[in-house]
Each structure stands twice: as C-alpha cells, then as structure tokens.
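Q: I'm writing up a methods section and want to include an example of the input and output format. Could you take the sequence below and give the corresponding predicted structure tokens, formatted cleanly so I can copy it straight into the document?
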Amino acid sequence: MATSRRVSRVSSLIKREVSQMLLHEIKDDRVGTGMVSVTEVEVSGDLQHAKIFVSIYGSPEAKASTMAGLHSAAPFVRRELGQRMRLRRTPEVSFLEDRSLERGDKILNLLNNLPQAIATEDLEDDDSGLALD
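A: Here is the clean output for your methods example:
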C-alpha cells in the first residue's frame, strides 16, 4: 500500500494530466458540448483505481452528453496516463460528475433569501398578534 504522500502526489499528477487531455487531446465532440473542468481526483491507497470528479457547466442534456463522452474516453485516458506517468500499474479511471458547486450555489441562494424570509415571517407574526388582542 502506498503512503498518503505518494497517493496525494499521484492524485495531483493525474488531475494535471487529465486536465491537459481535456483541453487538447480528447477529440470526442460530446466532451466539448459542456465546459468541463477536473475538480478532484481520488486515488485508492493501492493506486489501482482513480475517481476523477468533473464539473460540467451547461444544460442537463449537455451534461449527460459530456459524461457519456468522458465514459467512452476513459480507456484512452488510462492509456495516455500509462504513457506519461511512471507507475508500475496504471490506475483504472472512472469519471464522476461533481455537483458540489451546484449544491454550494443552492445553499448560497437560500442564505441570501433568508433575511427576506425572516422579515416576511416577522410581519406575519405581528399581524397575527394584533388579531388575537
């Protein structure tokens, strides 16, 4: 089993290389339909599996198309990683959609609307308090 420092280094190297491949080398038109960026790479402790989290901007159809293109490009990505990196075994690559940015945006919108909701609730409480007296 590899040390956590080595796993971290391999993870960052995979992230950099896959980002370069997305920009210049993956020719699948489906990958270009949405703006894609690699947000995180999780490598297993034995360096046999790599989960590549990607953030895709665009419509839901573009996201689905882009994910299909990435899944079909996974063998190419693995082969390229094997040629570029000096590892005994190249990790199996899987692409997963990272929705953390969408969740963060949703939470920010809720927090931004919170003062308005509290003010509306206070007004309703004041109105109902007058009716009871």
